[in-house]
What does this fold into?
Amino acid sequence: MALANASCGFSLLPQGKSQGSPTSNHLLCSINWDGLDFSWLPDSLHIAYASNRGLFVVNVENGQRRWQQKIWPGYEYTSTWAISTAERGTTVAYVGDAALLVQNIESGENIWTHRYTPFPQRRVALSPDGTRIAFSLSQNTSNAAHQPDIVEVWDIEHGTMLSRYPASLKGQGIARLNDIIWSPDGAFIASIYQDGSVHVWGAANAHLLWRYDASVSSEPCSVLGWSPDGNALVFAATGKTGKSLLGVWNARTGQVRLQTNADVSVTAQNGKDKRITWSPDGTRMAFGVINNIGSAIEVWSLQNGRHLFTCQHVSGQPLYVTWSPDGKYLAAGNYIVGSGELAQGDNGGRSVVQFWDASNGQALFTYSAPKNPEQLAWSPDSRSLALITPLNYGILSNKTCLSLCRYGYKDYMLQVFRVP
It folds into this structure.
């Protein structure tokens, strides 16, 4: 299938190191976006683009695209409503109403199809290495919408179930499942429930390590993610005093390692952007906070629980920050609202991608990204940054975007920028 208005090409990069006027000659690739998800391949040269028409892989330097779609026997890609991609970028799972399909991204070959009874709001997550998959289901399929969820973990290569959590719902008092998050090494899973409770358990044996019971503590929590070494879990909560909290649990014991007052939202409207990011070595974390001057990016040490610095203030609303894999940069989509303009409305195309020095928070440079840049994703080698951004604004006009989109915008593009 040909994609209109798609262009890719190499260009030299600006060397300016200031916060001043955004530059645009760093844009490497721009492709129409009407997909469900995207991810970098390990070679840092290709991006996998998944939609409800199948999968294709694009070379970000020359624009060459190849369809990886294979026939899904007995099913249609158009029934897909969610995607899960392994962190290592080699495996993708298509989630449909009656079945899920796991595909090898690089070859396009179908690895495994699993049929199940239709279930509302099913949660699916591939393990980081793409060899296992966890998904939610109800033990009582005739009344699934009103039953607590269980999670099954399957070995994809052999098509066998490895574990089921919990093994029994008797006396568990479990609410509906909200999310499934694998630890980086694939050994553990954090189940996050709609009442704000959290359970951490072994993926291989469903052994419960610890649980946080929101009904007992009266402080519902949302897990923001695992640290890269798998030793910590970051959470956001509303404290008993009504103040928003950001905290860190010991991932093995559930003991609180760090807690501070911080107004940190859990995720963006699209559910893909996260407001917490880790340094590659897992010793520091950065997150966006709302303060009396708008928003700011703070960096904290996990080792001693101390605030290290606040990134240099810039105009706009930079909230969804991401750390480059080489540890050099912090970057965030910066939504800039002019005088008299509505928040999350038409901002005249002034939004940018803001870059800071990750060692001290100094603002370095900006790249022009129209309207509302989101879902920032670094290539594994840190030389490129991909994102989704709309080109135009129009109420109730999200016809060009299946997923990862904001209300009111249209004509989305997947753009890739070269970073010096």
